[in-house]
Amino acid sequence: MTQAFKPVSVAIGDLVAHPANVRTNSPETYASENIAHLKASIAVLGLLQPLLVQKIDGKFGVLAGGRRHAALLELAADKTAKGFTNRTKIDCRLVPDDCDVTTALSLAENITQAPMNAIDEFEAFARMMEVDGQTPETIARTFGTTVAAVKGRLRYGLIHPDIRAAARAKLITLDTMKAFADHPSQEVQREVFDALTKEDSYLQAYTVRNALKSRGVQVSDDIGAFVRKDYEARGGAIAADLLDEHSVLEDSALVETILLEKLAAAAEEARAEIGFAWADAVIQYDYAAMADYGRVYPGPVEPDEKGSRRVDEITAELEKLEHEMENEELEDEAYNELYERVDALEAEARDLQEAYGKEDLARSGVIASWSHGKISLHLGMVRPEDKAARSGKGTGAPSDKGAVDGDEITYPASLTEDLKTERAMALGAAMAMHPEATLDLTLFKLVTDVLTSGMGVTQAIKVDARQEYRTHAKMDEIDGTSLEQVAEAHDALDLSWADDAKSPADQFALFRALDAGEKAKLVAYATAATTQSCFSRDRQRDSLMYDFEVEIMPDIRAHWTPNAALFNRFKKAWLLKILGEELGLVQEAVTLASSTKKQVVEFCDKLFAEPFATLTEAQRAAVAAWCPPMMQTAGVEPVDASEAETPEVETEVAEAA
């Protein structure tokens, strides 16, 4: 419609606001901060779209384009803006005086006016650099944005023209086009584009990125950052990008050579320090390929007098640090520092109390690999040709589980008390969810306490109308499953009788009118609140509660899930032992042995929150059933996932711990 309107040139000073403009009543639209980018764009590129105007009292009212008008007025008033004064004429389209659709025209333009095409925007930034000699810094100042934002847009503007043309023609998506910016070389971009379009007419962004990875290594990748200094020193070719982190080390062979050299140096350093017979390096440690290798582990040794004193000092300091880590008011930074200190002390104590036997050193070695952005050392590896039958004599090596037995999992008193509380909460949830059984237990407890002499048949619950007070050092961090289940049970209660405005007699009358099922729910909910802090029962000493808990809570994991709050209070060695021996995640335990305790805790937290899809059936069952042994009832048989592994692989967890 606007194309039929007569083109006119109007001086900026002759333009006024039109009362029919739909944005007239929104002055914030024209505020300086809201039109800064538009003003900068007009200053650099000019007015790209004419204003729609109509004559009003000898002036020209801006019917559509009020923000552009406001930007032009600011440019005319800005003494530093060149080429803009009140006399500067700009292109407009004149709406006839007798047109009765002015408001509709204004609304239509403001709603339907589309922003600049994304590809046009990318190309415009690139053209400003190539033709106008602009720099990212000057463009950023002009448009009131950051240099990084400008460079990010410029990168897309420098994608090969043929690829941009394909995106413009909608042969590929904009996201796919952007993926080609992962490599700065237009020649490489075009080669990959041609190769992929021959194989498949429909390209996806991830396919492009994977293909570009074979054409070099970005300096922001962990390997690229690790080798870059040596790579540049050897004159390796670099495809420079406007954003340095996207520059690419083009000689992949040289990158691999340097990485292997660094891995070999790290392996040799470890070999010399420990005394192994050989050292080797691989970029990626392939567990399947290494299955034929054996492995030996350091065995326990008696430290000398000086070493013994140091072990005692470390033990005392670790106890102190574990106590400090239980402080809920600790800031994250301080907590992480304690973590690192605990890791360092545990490693020092292990070195003082463990050593490889001479015979094992004579036939074993170390392999260095690249894992999770750093060098990982695999110690005590035995080549297939050097493997010997394990006689258990004269090797200096511990038995399959000897290396970890010296660091058995124990539970400090504070953690023990808190786990008792969590178990009581889980048991309470189970009782509330089994009202008939709990009602029977409550009545049985009440009757037998009265009719029998001496100690009652169970001390697990109290029938004195008092809710049990439960203490816990980290109540706000524990798993909330049991609390949610109890809350759901409460919401399901019929409390119509519990009207404070009524007398106790009236409340009792209403209570008696409830059906038996509703009464059972109420009694079960109240009894659940009286459960005392507890661990699993001894069948001989408390047969009643032992059998009752097996019935209503055969698996505590239905009401409680281990989380970071628990794992934070375990030693790193305990967590590795649980992963490798109790869950069957031997390879994961070995890999995590070189990680910090914080990283191990994060891994365990994610594992139990949502078991990984890569787990075997045995591992998944072990994760689903695991809990500290004194918390589980006898209703579920313990799962030993480690039985699914071969004996040779099983022992790898020894080093991990």
TrEMBL record:
Keyword DNA-binding: no
Organism: Salipiger profundus
Swiss-Prot/TrEMBL GO biological process terms: chromosome segregation
UniProt biased composition (Acidic residues): 640-657
One matching Pfam family: ParB_N
Name of protein: Chromosome partitioning protein, ParB family
Region (Disordered): 386-407, 637-657
Keyword NADP: no
PANTHER family cross-referenced by the UniProt entry: CHROMOSOME 2-PARTITIONING PROTEIN PARB-RELATED, CHROMOSOME-PARTITIONING PROTEIN PARB-RELATED
